[in-house]
């Protein structure tokens, strides 16, 4: 029986979809069978980030309404043998198209077939959020070092505590800019973790390549040398129970030649 | 055995109602007793008489009390002082307990959460920005407050908030509201701070050393020296 994990944040734009795609890909690379569920109905992106948008035939609303069996709606990612599937969201309706019971039924149907079912939650705390958390065994809260994102994360942790899951929520701090954190312009990792009072699952450094690779439909974890990729891989390893030390946040030091280059730019 | 017994004590007359008899019997015997009393030879019409009614291990309902009161009303110089019983209803007991206890709260109140407590609160947890702790009693705070607290809810301005509220967003006492964030520098970063409503109905703050002047009633209750 697999584990269903919802990836949520409250605030939009902190990187829920990117985190879902990358953790999912990292787990698949480690040989685990993973299904990603996109619940951002009406504004689906997960398929684009994974480069699977051209292959969608049916979506989660079709499955919930009983139009097609679940297996027909799953989109297989050929890069990972038989390990990686996506259940896409519907694009022509909105978040109220699904009920909590319908989503729970689909999650329960997926869990025995996969090691991990990752649920990509839409932003906000309305019906879409309720749908996403109902079937999950645990939650990953994504935040960035911004105060507004931390506030919303706090709100979401509060909502999740009302209906406790099997496991307490865990935190991923995304889009860390080492220089700003080093200068004290934003809250640092310890401050955020201490403030929210939940366990830290991992940190991810902000990197331009995260955006450029996802524009080609390739999650950043496929690049083994990237610092953001290392963050996601570490998270995946921790999910599998390994003890991995937190990566060091090193501010980029500009060398003599880079400075010189910038002058002549 | 009689269900209703009249007894004279140093403190006046008592009518003791047997708690094992039925209320109908009591009603009849009660009226009989009063009749017997006014027809007695020692009875003086000009002298007023009043009774305490003791009900033992029976708590009379409001309507039962009303029935007995109606009976007594028929006799113009008799009155009932009050009812007392050795027992009380669960509702009364809970109310009494809630009014007088100190509730210990040790939890994180997160953004958007709103915790309501009855009576005095000893707060050991943490209130995040956007979180709210509301009580009708006093608040003794040893935890971190970065959100909103409200004491004396909804309108009691005699309640106090004691603790470090340096980082709070707002403190509300009764109907008065103070935006602490605007007075950040004035309110000391000290756990011995008292916030209260002064005679001008505005929230002000002082040190715990002055609590005797701020609220003598509260001071005597906590047994300070």
From TrEMBL, chain A:
Residues 3-157 form the AAA domain. It holds the Pfam family AAA_31. CDD domains: MinD. One of its GO terms (biological process) is negative regulation of cell division. Keywords: ATP-binding, Cell cycle, Cell division, Nucleotide-binding, Septation. GO terms for cellular component: cytoplasmic side of plasma membrane; cytosol. InterPro entries: AAA_dom (IPR025669), MinD (IPR010223), MinD_FleN (IPR025501), P-loop_NTPase (IPR027417), ParA/MinD_ATPase (IPR050625). GO terms for molecular function: ATP binding; ATP hydrolysis activity. ATP binds at residues 11-18. Belongs to the ParA family. MinD subfamily. ATPase required for the correct placement of the division site. Cell division inhibitors MinC and MinD act in concert to form an inhibitor capable of blocking formation of the polar Z ring septums. Rapidly oscillates between the poles of the cell to destabilize FtsZ filaments that have formed before they mature into polar Z rings. This is Septum site-determining protein MinD. It comes from Fructilactobacillus lindneri DSM 20690 = JCM 11027.
TrEMBL record, chain B:
Keywords: Cell cycle, Cell division, Septation. Residues 104-186 form the Septum formation inhibitor MinC C-terminal domain. InterPro entries: CAP/MinC_C, MinC, MinC_C_sf, MinC_N_1, Septum_form_inhib_MinC_C. Residues 4-82 form the Septum site-determining protein MinC N-terminal domain. Gene3D superfamilies: 2.160.20.70, 3.30.160.540. Pfam families: MinC_C, MinC_N_1. Transmembrane segments: none annotated. GO terms for biological process: cell morphogenesis; division septum assembly; regulation of cell septum assembly. Belongs to the MinC family. Interacts with MinD and FtsZ. This is Uncharacterized protein.
């Amino acid at each position: 029986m697999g584990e269903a994990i919802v990836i949520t944040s409250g605030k939009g734009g902190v990187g829920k979809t990117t985190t879902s795609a990358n953790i999912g890909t990292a787990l698949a690379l480690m040989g685990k069978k993973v299904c990603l569920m996109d619940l951002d109905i009406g504004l689906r992106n997960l398929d684009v980030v994974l480069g699977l948008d051209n292959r969608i035939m049916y979506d989660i609303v079709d499955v919930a309404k009983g139009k097609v069996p679940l297996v027909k709606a799953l989109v297989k990612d050929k890069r990972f043998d038989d390990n990686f599937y996506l259940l896409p969201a519907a694009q022509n309706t909105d978040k109220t198209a699904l009920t909590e019971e319908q989503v729970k039924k689909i999650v329960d149907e997926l869990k025995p077939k996969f090691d991990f079912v990752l649920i990509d939650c839409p932003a906000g705390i309305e019906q879409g959020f309720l749908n996403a958390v109902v079937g999950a065994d645990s939650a990953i809260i994504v935040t960035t070092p911004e105060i507004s994102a931390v506030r919303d994360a706090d709100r979401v942790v509060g909502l999740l505590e009302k209906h406790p899951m099997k496991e307490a929520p865990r935190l991923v701090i995304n889009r860390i800019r080492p220089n700003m954190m080093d200068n004290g312009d934003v809250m640092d990792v310890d401050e955020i973790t201490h403030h929210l009072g939940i366990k830290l699952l991992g940190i991810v450094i902000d990197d331009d390549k995260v955006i450029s690779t996802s524009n080609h439909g390739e999650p950043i974890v496929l690049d083994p040398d990237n610092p953001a990729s290392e963050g996601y891989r570490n998270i995946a390893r921790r999910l599998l129970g390994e003890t991995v030390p937190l990566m060091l946040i090193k501010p980029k030091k500009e060398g003599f030649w880079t400075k010189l280059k910038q002058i002549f730019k | 055995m009689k269900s209703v017994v009249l007894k004279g004590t140093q403190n006046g007359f008592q009518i003791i109602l047997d708690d094992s008899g039925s209320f109908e019997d009591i009603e009849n015997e009660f009226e009989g007793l009063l009749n017997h009393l006014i027809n007695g030879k020692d009875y003086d019409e000009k002298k007023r008489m009043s009774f305490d009614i003791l009900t033992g291990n029976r708590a009379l309902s409001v309507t039962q009390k009303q029935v007995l009161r109606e009976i007594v009303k028929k006799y113009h110089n008799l009155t009932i002082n009050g009812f007392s019983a050795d027992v009380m209803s669960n509702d009364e007991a809970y109310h009494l307990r809630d009014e007088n206890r100190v509730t210990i709260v040790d939890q994180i109140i997160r953004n958007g959460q709103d915790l309501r407590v009855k009576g005095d609160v000893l707060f050991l947890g943490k209130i995040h920005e956007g979180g709210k702790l509301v009580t009708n009693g006093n608040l003794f705070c040893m935890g971190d407050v970065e959100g909103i607290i409200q004491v004396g809810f909804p309108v009691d301005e005699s309640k106090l908030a004691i603790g470090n509220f340096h980082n709070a967003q707002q403190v509300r006492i009764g109907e008065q509201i103070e935006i602490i964030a605007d007075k950040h520098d004035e309110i000391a970063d000290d756990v011995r701070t008292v916030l209260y409503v002064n005679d001008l109905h505005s929230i002000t703050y002082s040190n715990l050393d002055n609590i005797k002047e701020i609220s003598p009633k509260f001071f005597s209750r906590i047994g300070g020296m």
